[in-house]
Amino acid sequence: MMYKSDIMIALITLLAALFASCSDNMGTPDDRLVAVTSLIEPMDAREVVLEPSVSAALYFEWDYVNPGEAGVATYRIAFDNADGDFSSPIYIITADNNGLANHVTVSHRDLNKIAGKAGINPSATGTIKWTVLSSKGTKTMKSSQEYNLVITRLAGFEDIPMELFITGEATEGGADISNAIAMKNLAEGEFEIYTRLTAGQPFKFVSGKSGESTTYSLTDDNIVIDGSSEVPLTGVYKFYINFEIGSYTTKHISKVSLFLNWSQLYIELPYIGSGVWGVADYEISGLSGNDNTDDRYKFRMESSEGETEWRAADNDSKPTGAPEYYYMVERTNVTQWTDGQIWKSPASDGWSGKRYDITFSLNPDGPYTHNLVIK
Question: Does domain 165-245 sit in CATH 3.10.590?
Fold first, then answer.
């Protein structure tokens, strides 16, 4: 509960603040203003290599204006080209605490945009300038100090697509962009897909299936705007694209197999389409002893990058009935025994003498998963 004395104190405080904002001329606003005299951080000519991490940032600080000369001011940090005079800054950021603080933290991603506005190309190093503007009402004054900042930009793109598709004559969807295949979105700016491509035919990546969209293609180790790409061999490929750092990786997948741990039997799964491999009504026979009764299994993939395994992230039990039981993760340490990272056949009497439907799905529309059904 607020008492009368509390209300009176609050009113007195408010009136004092109002009077403090006025000059000796009653009712005249205090429009005194001076420029910031000293920039503190980062030091002049500081070199910064930008990082793609969301948390990467640079701290800026400067001295407050003298309150005896200017009262309370608000602050903004301004950026300009190396030869600019700040008459038309390329970027302005309000200081922390709605402009009242003498500092602000600027993300590396924002610095990357600012450097781009200054004409510095991705992956290149260049210089921009920064200073501080103090303001009160309609008045603004620029600091007498201007510091250089030497920035090495990210290799990535300033405008990162929210979604990405693959299209073109070489793809499973063909050249009709309405049939473009959506890629799996792993994180902001990161996409991947497993898909079949035809050698000698063009393909490209697009940010949308209709309307205005941006086209991307691959060259050397970089992603570029416009153009198209080709693969040297017809087959299934994995593409991983990272717009944050402007690079990609690819591998040609030659084989996917079900792998039985004890017998080390490989059962090759042909590629069906849409990122799915599988067999239907496949009979396993001829196994005996532990080769037959040990129920552990996983998958192995052969590619231009070598052999990898697809295993359970954390499992060592029979099927539970939950979809998550069948989810898969790729591992590079290929070895026979990976207890705690395997699945088990639903059968209790061995592998042999049964027919199976087996699917291995890296379809981008859902979790990477598989299924093993005894007919």
Answer: no
